[in-house]
Design brief:
By secondary structure, this protein is of the alpha+beta class. It has helices spanning 2-10, 18-43, 47-65, 69-78, 90-119, 126-152, 156-171, 175-190, 233-236, 263-276, 323-336; strands at residues 80-83, 86-89, 198-201, 206-212, 216-220, 226-230, 239-241, 249-257, 293-299, 304-312. It has three domains: 2-152, no CATH class; 176-241, SH3 type barrels, CATH 2.30.30.60; 249-336, Alpha-Beta Plaits. It is a multi-pass membrane protein.
Length: 352
């Protein structure tokens, strides 16, 4: 910026020679380009933004250096098309495409970089980070649209009146989108859902929240599928959040043994087997209610129904699925110690 200001003050001394004047203008333009690029890269450290500024501003500097910018601008402005009371020139179309392209690419990259930086702020919880990121995205896009309209020369007052009339007409057709948008803001602000929560919907679908948007929430299932759920579903239907406040969950498994089984010998063996599983919570740091347990569930037709209960610090599915391992360990334990599983038995009497 010091180069730009110095060249601006000294440029009057070189007006006598056209070549010197062009050199001063070229150096001043390059200094301004470097200043803008350094500022942009400082605020948004992305190589794409640097290339965008370089490729978009350098042609203008070159045209200005050879005194071609003004003639080209006037030539394009002479080609006009009148539609009613609106006059559109070829220069307006080129200016819209040029500035619109710059704003589009710059907006996309800067939006991505800022959202990444917001989501890295670990002193904020995930819901707060998502709120700030989404509000920044909406505000930034709105600002870009307003800037583009001002560049084109659209009267914002007229646009506001037209937008109000159009909004009334489209409001009935866009009720679902508006409902999802408002629902998304409420979800982000009341922090009822967060990234990483395990959600089970009323329809039976379940998954881990991987993305919170203003329109929908993406659930990732343990088999690698993504379920996109509109935000208003979480206001119109009942859902279960398994891990929002507490990741500890209690699970139970059932199996049966023969009636002749010595339960006093079986129960300690099963509890020791549960404690041996690293996923099952056990130890003096946990309460009695959180310790692994086994009890009689009922008496069936063929054997005694038993219930195994245990706590774990995760959802029993995916990489943390332990139910199959526990059942397998119980099967091995029963075979090693001679316990029997019941099977259907019938007593047949032949009457004379």
């Amino acid at each position: 910026m010091l180069w730009v200001l110095s060249l601006a003050m000294l440029s009057e001394q070189y007006l006598a020679t056209l070549v010197r004047q062009r050199i001063v203008i070229a150096v001043q333009s390059i200094a301004f380009l470097l200043a803008v690029m350094n500022l942009a890269l400082y605020l948004f450290p992305s190589k794409k933004i640097g290339r965008l500024l370089l490729y978009s501003i350098t042609p203008i500097i070159a045209l200005n250096f050879f005194d071609l910018l003004d003639p080209i601008t006037h030539s394009l402005d002479n080609y006009r098309l009148s539609i009613g009371g609106i006059n559109i020139s070829l220069f307006d179309v080129v200016k819209l495409a040029y500035i619109g392209g710059i704003l589009f690419w710059f907006g996309r990259e800067s939006n991505r970089v800022v959202k990444q930086n917001i989501r890295k702020q670990q002193h904020l919880d995930s819901s707060t980070r998502e709120i700030i990121a989404k509000l920044f995205e909406v505000g930034f896009i709105t600002l870009l649209i307003v800037l583009l309209l001002n560049v084109v020369g659209v009267n914002l007052t007229t646009l506001a009146v037209f937008g109000g009339a159009l909004g009334v007409g489209l409001g009935f057709g866009l009720q679902s989108i508006a409902s999802n948008f408002v629902s998304g803001l409420i979800i982000l602000m009341d922090r009822s859902l967060s990234i990483g929560d395990y959600i089970e919907l009323e329809s039976g679908q379940s998954g881990i929240i991987r993305e919170l948007n203003l329109r929908s929430i993406t659930l990732e299932t343990f088999d690698g599928k993504d379920i996109v759920v509109p935000n208003d579903v979480f206001f119109s239907q009942t859902f279960t959040n398994w891990t929002h406040k507490n990741t500890q969950q209690r699970y139970s498994l059932s199996f049966s043994v023969a009636y002749k089984t010595d339960l006093d010998a079986l129960f300690p063996l099963v509890i020791d087997s549960l404690k041996a599983n690293p996923q099952v919570l056990s130890g003096p740091q946990y309460s009695i209610a959180e310790q692994p347990d086994i009890e009689i569930k009922g008496f069936g037709d063929n054997g005694i129904d038993l219930l195994v209960e245990f706590w774990m610090n995760a959802v029993d599915d995916g990489e943390n699925r332990v139910s199959a391992d526990i059942l397998y360990s119980i099967w091995k334990l029963m075979n090693e110690h001679g316990f029997e599983f019941p099977f259907p038995q019938r007593e047949v009497r032949i009457l004379p």
